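Minutes, structural biology subgroup

Action item carried over from last meeting: produce the structure token record for Carboxypeptidase-like protein (Spirosoma oryzae). EB confirmed the sequence was re-checked against the source entry. Recorded below for completeness.
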Amino acid sequence: MTVYLRTRLVLALLLTGLTSISLAQTSYTISGRVTDASTGDGIPFASLALKGTTSGTTSDVDGRYSLTVGKLTDSLLVQSLGYRTHAYGLLPQPTQTIDARLSAAATRLNEVRVYAKGGDPAYRVLREVVRRRDQFNPAQLTAYEFDSYTKIEGYINNFGQQRKHNRRPGPISRLLGKLPAVTDASGQRAVPVFISETVSAVYARANPDRTKEYIRKSRVSGVGVSDGSLIAQLTGASFQQYNFYRNSLNIFRKDIPSPVGSQWDALYTFRLKDTVLVDNAPCYEIEFTPKRATDLAFTGTVWIDTLHLALAQVDALVDKRANINFVDELHIEQSWETTASGTRFPTQTQLTIDTDEPTPNAPGALIRFLTTARNISPKAPHEAGFYNPSIELADDYKQTDAAFWQNARPESLSPDEFKALRVVDSVRNVPLIKVAGEVIKLGVLGYKPIEKWNIDIGPLLYSYANNNVEGNRFRLGLRTNTGFSRKWLLSGYLAYGTFDQQLKYSAQAEYIVSRKPWTVIGARRTYDLERIGISTDNIGGNSLFAAYSRFGTIRRPYFQEDNLVYARRELGSGFTQTLALRNRTFEPLFPFAFRPQSADADQSVRNSYRTTELISETRFAPDEVLLQNDNVRVSAGAVRKPIFTLRYTLGLRDVLGSDFAYQRVALTMKHSFRMGVLGRTYYTVGAGLIPSTVPYPLLYTPLGNESAFYVSNAYNLMNYFEFVCDRWASVQVEHNFGGLLFNRLPLLRRLKWREVVTANVLVGGVSSANLSAIPAADAQGNAVEGFSSLSRRPYVEVGYGIDNIFKVLRVDFLHRLTYRDNLTRTGVPVTPFAVKFSGWLSF
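Output recorded by EB:
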């Protein structure tokens, strides 16, 4: 059991002792902690015994103990190797606390290591543990389920430290010093800013791998957060599962190798320390440390059951020497128990994160995650559809009271924890903190809620732009929230340009037919300025780049009226199907013309058109976790398996005024995988075909990037609208070494820089029919601008860069290897080499 569990058991034993005494007065409980008199650190595995008897116990890894006996003697003897034995007098009362402080012996014994032939015997034990992993790994179960309780606490601490030369605390520290606070384990003031509790049922199966969490109840209280559905899902058990039997543990998107994983011998050094009792079972106590201190790896202790050679307990930490941003120390304590099927299961996990202060005198933060598993039951698997969605909220998940939580918690809260629950509400209502919380929400979500009307105004990112066509562009958008309706989501915007004096608009209505399986229907009408080569289809979810594209010189602009109706439904097993009917216009603001298709009776050159498309999109993401943010679904990404998207478009001629019949099919795959100590690779593979003759705005335009910023899904040295294709294939690769080289260079180690390499390759072409569809001049005799296409040579750009500069900045050095002298139709010269920047918060 972990220290946390043992501490809670001490409290439970004290309560049990009080009850028993009131009934029979037949038992006595002694508890407390054994510490080093000079350092105050807990002394693990100290021996405690009643003088003159055989009744006794040992302290846990943190020095805590509890002893219940039927008869008292006059004193308690406390001893540990290297310390003087000390006797403490006992009182004839049912419960008493004795905190023992031991002084170091005058003469300490030097450490003596006795190894069997072949090195430390820990390696023989670990070798057998790794060999038996599949036997005890809970991931090998056909199916199982359990009840989970998760608690998350967040505190601001280290704001009351004495500054040099007796200087006054800074303004932030002075503000924090005036707020309600609790006392942390070190006796310092800490301001609670976030507390959540979640009770859920977790179901899992193998072949195919599926996991589902059904959140029964949840409550959240914190600065800048609301008790919403998205927070409830993020604070559940789905994101707090840590299995040391896997090769690595994914924490903050970092793959930290397990000390009992496949790379145990290559990454760690082990030492057999002792044989101790854990839950009355004899266990090997084995210490482990990384072979290289700067590696992203754990330091700590594992307790291995001597009978089965299986995990019984883990105490592991990653300190500030590892390359994790904002983290001073990451500490995991975990207890494992045997299930009815004979496998092991982590029944309690506590993850503690002590953040690194950004400056020497700045406040820090402490975050604690506690997850427990009860009623673990290996069972027959449910059908695959049962596990969709992977996270589901009960309709009444918010409806709780104090009595419910008192019964739902696996153990009672401590007085400090009860105080923190009360204090966090006081903190969040302090006017200045309340304003800061609203600013945080606006910065993260981009919307400002207007609670009176149940609408959100935004997003802030699109509110203003300036370009050569519109001049100053102002936009006001809004959307409804769940206070308005849990079925309807209405949204839209109005935009106006001071130069073109044109009003642009969008209006959308979406109706949630069913939440399980997720089924929505919707309709949208938009009239706005667009530009060739940059559209929602190829930008994807990069909202920052989409906002940036509205600034500066817009080449080949056009107005578009876009009408869309769609239906989307989850089909189970990771499949999502979307069907849509889209009707849109093309009204160019630049010299443009095309020859009609051969089926047209009128073969005169035209400069505008209308299309009607039937669109089918099938998305397969078997490993993806989808979250529901009120009435909107949000992807939390996939961990191990790739995501496939197949999109087919059929142009319908003479339907709703459409001018063309055509087809388009495109397939993409996105994936990432770990390459051991070499880091992680991210890649996207795509291919497509348009076997029809259509105007070039309907062909495929690779996303270029003329900005000074690096964009992960773009060709960063390709100009906007530099190439057009009607058949194409592409590969985009990025590998992050995670500081593999820089961590080994003394002068660079402390900077925590990370090496990155990238490569983008595109092959494709345009048929002769689509090339000949562009006339030399329009109906008025004006010269028509054409486009460039790829030859048999692929477009290739490669790069190398440094990530994590000042923890937020990335610099990429990019080289364009082909088409370096390309005479583009855009009028913008080719850039064979560039340095581009990007920035985001990452761990």
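Discussion: Residues 1-25, 107-112 have pLDDT under 50 and may be disordered.
Next step: EB to file the record with the rest of the batch.
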